[in-house]
Every structure is written in structure tokens, then in C-alpha cells.
Write a structure and sequence with these properties.
single chain; alpha/beta; Rossmann fold; GMP Synthetase, Chain A, domain 3; 2 domains; nine-stranded mixed sheet; four-stranded mixed sheet; 12 helices; 20 strands; 32% helix; globular; binds 5'-O-[hydroxy(phenylacetyl)phosphoryl]adenosine
């Protein structure tokens, strides 16, 4: 069993708590002294940095939300002057202003350590070539895994995303050992490998590290089969750090959080009350190991549950369940909550194609949901009757999982857009009206 940082990853709870307490105390002081936004917030509730004595005091602190970053655009929440930053990243900003994040040299090192832990947990070693097909740029995926690969001493291959046939050719020619990209891009790479007449077993890739979007256990099996590899999950978000905030180990039973840098809580999204282990709620992080953007109790909007049970891999760090989706990705169809990931599970359980698109609309006062699913190649010669029967079978399975009717339409294989980054699975026409 290999670990990148065994002294932390396998530490006793007492040791971890001691580190967390010391770091929380110093980060709160940093935030209060150097960020006007936090100073005001603390003063409003009569809280002084001296009131924080240990990690147990974290619930005394106020939450931070995404709009706080936007309201202080671009650099207003930084605790250091811009001249101390060595890197800036930003969210794509498709809705409103982008969120801007800055890193000091120390912060980049923290982030690279997280990504390096993830790579080693996925079985990477110094002799490996790490093929990074996450986008390079303001998005944190590419550079995050790149620095992680260099940190653990492997060879980083900055392929970035796109030009998929060339990617496959490089995987072949260079003998890459690990592939890093979004799970939807991994599926697309798998399809392209087959289209090019290559047998995945002839590639040297033995594992993939996939994240940046929700994906189900069923999708994991599909990718493992399609690429003939073991598929590991990795989680992160620009505001906290890119990929490597949490990662799968070989047990694939929850993602280990780098809790010495990013202290997690799960809260009831409506009340903010902290929930016990095992209960699903909104994931909240406090950046106890970062200098430039020490966010306090940042509400990620991601839904998951935590467990502090020791993992069979030997790691003791707290684990989060695979994020089920974001509170803002959740569809409300005729009053019922639906996560796209539930639809993905049903489709894959029925051995359907993993390429799907959910179209939500409103007819009169009624929400409608249609799920477009690509036909499997072998269904090509099916009669219309046979296709309708399959559609109906999927509709029944969806109804029983979601408790709401969704119309299913089988569409031609290859007709839905493929993703090179984060897949767009939902078109909500209600928002356009
Ligand atoms: O997606 C960082 C990243 C890059 C993570 C590469 C993993 C791999 P953002 O673009 O800021 O950062 O998007 C963050 O993506 O709040 C989640 O909703 C979602 N997300 C990220 N990883 C996962 C995952 C990057 N493994 C947002 N499972 C997060 C489910 C994920 N959702």
C-alpha cells in the first residue's frame, strides 16, 4: 500500500485535530487582520479571533457563500497583496461574474500535495506517465493534476482536452499509465479508441482519475469496462483548490478529504445546522492551510455525507460519499426533487447507452421532462415496436426511481453532443422562458 503523505493520511484522530486546531486559530487571525469582509462579519456578530481556541469552535464562525466572492470581485477576499500571488484561476463565469481565486507559492504547494496524494492513492508511482486531459487554463483541472504529477515525481503529459484522436495516438505511442480527465470525456476517449480499431487492452493505461462533474457508480463500471482500467474519483472546486481536495483510494468507498488543509462539515442546507456522519447535506469547507484565500465555512452546494471510520486502505482521514450533485443542479419537477445522477443510474442499470440528455420544459402549468437516450448499436435494426417497448421499459424504471413521469426518446447512436470537459446533461427550457 503506498501513500504520498502517510504521516497525515494515516494519522491518529488526536494528531489530526491538533493540526486542525492550530491551523484554524492562525487562519482566523489571518482572515480577521487582512480581509475587511471577514473583519466586518466578525464585528457584526461580536466575534474576536481570540474566541477560537480549537477546531471545535468552528461552528462559531460565519458561513461564506459564492456571492461573497462575486461581490468582492476580483481580489477583494484576498488576504495578501496581488504581488504575493504566483497564480490566479477563475471559474468560467457563465452565470454572472467569474469567481477569482489567487494562490501564493505555499498555496500552490498545498494544492499540489492534494493532487499528489490522489495520484498515489490511485496507484501512480514515479515511473509513470500521467496523461492529463483536463483543460489547461483558468479551469483548475489541467494545471492541478499537472503539478500533482510533478510533485510526486512522475512524468506529467499536458495533453489538455480536445483533438481526441490525437490523444488516443499519444496514449498509444507514449505508453501513458494514468489518464486524468472528466468521466464524460473518458467515455468519449473509450468510444474513440474503439472507432480507431484499437483494443484498450493494448494500451498501458491501468487507471484513470476522473472528476469535475458528478458520476455514478454505474458509470464507474462502464468506464472501467470501456477503457479496461480502474477508475478513481477525484473532487475539488476552484474556490478551495482544484482537483485533490478529496480522492478515491483503491477501496473506492468514499473520497478521502485532505482535512489537514480543507476542514469539512456537512450542514442542513436550509438551517445551516451541522449534521452527523452518514447524513446527507451540503458540504462546507474551511481552508485551514491556505494563505491567499482563506475561506471560512465556504458553502459548496455539493450534496454528500461524511464518515470518520478508518478505511481498509489504512487511511484515517475523513471520507465523503461521491457527491450526488449540487443543490443548484437539482431539478424540481412537479414539486419532486430529481438529480440527473439518478437518471444516469437507471439507464446504466438497464444496460442503456451512457449518453443521455434531460430536457425540462413547462406546458401550461405542468413541468415536463424528456430523457433522450442514444440507442445501442445493436438496436439499430430493431423495429419501431421494439424501440417503443424499450422506451416504455425505461419510463417505468425511471418512474419507480424518481416518483415522477419522464418521457423517454431513443435517438440515433452518436447523435448527442460529446463532452471534452464537463458534460451538459440538462436543458431546462423553463429557465429560458
Ligand atoms: O471541477 C475542479 C476539479 C477539476 C475537480 C478536475 C476534479 C477534477 P470547478 O470548475 O470550480 O472545479 O467546479 C467545482 O464541480 O463544486 C462540484 O459540483 C463539481 N465536482 C468536482 N469534482 C466532482 C466529483 C473543478 N468528483 C464543482 N464529483 C464542484 C461530483 C464534482 N462533482
Amino acid at each position: 500500500m503506498a501513500y504520498f503523505a502517510p504521516e497525515i493520511e494515516c494519522a491518529s484522530r488526536d494528531y489530526l485535530r491538533a493540526i486542525q486546531s492550530a491551523r484554524l486559530i492562525s487562519m482566523v487571525k489571518n482572515a480577521y487582520e487582512n480581509i475587511e469582509f471577514y473583519r466586518k462579519k466578525f464585528d457584526e456578530i461580536g466575534l474576536k479571533p481570540e474566541d477560537i481556541h480549537s477546531i471545535d469552535d468552528i461552528t462559531k464562525l460565519p458561513f461564506t457563500v459564492k456571492t461573497d466572492l462575486r461581490d468582492n470581485y476580483p481580489f477583494g477576499l484576498f488576504a495578501v497583496p496581488q504581488t504575493d500571488l504566483i497564480r490566479i484561476h477563475a471559474s468560467s463565469g457563465t452565470t454572472g461574474k467569474p469567481t477569482v481565486v489567487g494562490y501564493t507559492e505555499h498555496d500552490i504547494d498545498v494544492w499540489a500535495q492534494g493532487a499528489a496524494r490522489a495520484l498515489v492513492a490511485a496507484g501512480a508511482n514515479k515511473d509513470d506517465i500521467i496523461h492529463v486531459s483536463y483543460g489547461y487554463g483558468l479551469f483548475t483541472g489541467g494545471l492541478g493534476m499537472h503539478y500533482g504529477a510533478e510533485k510526486m515525481g512522475a512524468t506529467a503529459l499536458p495533453a489538455s482536452s480536445g483533438n481526441t484522436k490525437r490523444q488516443v495516438q499519444m496514449l498509444m505511442d507514449f505508453g501513458s499509465n494514468l489518464l486524468c480527465c472528466t468521466p464524460s470525456y473518458a467515455m468519449f476517449i473509450g468510444e474513440t479508441i474503439r472507432e480507431m480499431g484499437i483494443n484498450p487492452a493494448d494500451l498501458k493505461v491501468r487507471a484513470g482519475i476522473f472528476g469535475a462533474e458528478p458520476w455514478t457508480e454505474e458509470m464507474r463500471l462502464e468506464i472501467e469496462k470501456s477503457l479496461n482500467i480502474k477508475a478513481y474519483d477525484i473532487y475539488g472546486l476552484s474556490e478551495i483548490a482544484g482537483p485533490g481536495v478529496a480522492y478515491d483510494c483503491e477501496c473506492q468507498n468514499g473520497l478521502h478529504i485532505c482535512e489537514d488543509f480543507f476542514y469539512p462539515e456537512v450542514v442542513n442546507p436550509d438551517t445551516g445546522e451541522v449534521l452527523p456522519d452518514g447524513e446527507y447535506g451540503e458540504l462546507v469547507f474551511t481552508c485551514i492551510g491556505k494563505e491567499a484565500l482563506p475561506l471560512i465555512r465556504y458553502r459548496t452546494r455539493d450534496i454528500c455525507a461524511l464518515t470518520h471510520e478508518k478505511c481498509d486502505c489504512g487511511r484515517t482521514t475523513v471520507r465523503m460519499t461521491k457527491p450526488r450533485g449540487r443543490t443548484d443542479d437539482m431539478l424540481i419537477i412537479r414539486g419532486i426533487n430529481v438529480f440527473p445522477s439518478q437518471i444516469e443510474s437507471v439507464l446504466l442499470e438497464l444496460n442503456m447507452n451512457p449518453n443521455y440528455l434531460i430536457v425540462v420544459d413547462r406546458k401550461g402549468n405542468l413541468d415536463t421532462m424528456e430523457v433522450l437516450v442514444e440507442m445501442q448499436p445493436e438496436m439499430f435494426s430493431d423495429t419501431i415496436k421494439a424501440i417503443e417497448t424499450t422506451e416504455h421499459k425505461i419510463e417505468i424504471a425511471l418512474q419507480s426511481t424518481l416518483n415522477v413521469y419522464a418521457k423517454v426518446r431513443l435517438v440515433e447512436a452518436g447523435s448527442l453532443a460529446r463532452s471534452e470537459g464537463k458534460a451538459k446533461r440538462v436543458i431546462d427550457k423553463r429557465k429560458e422562458n
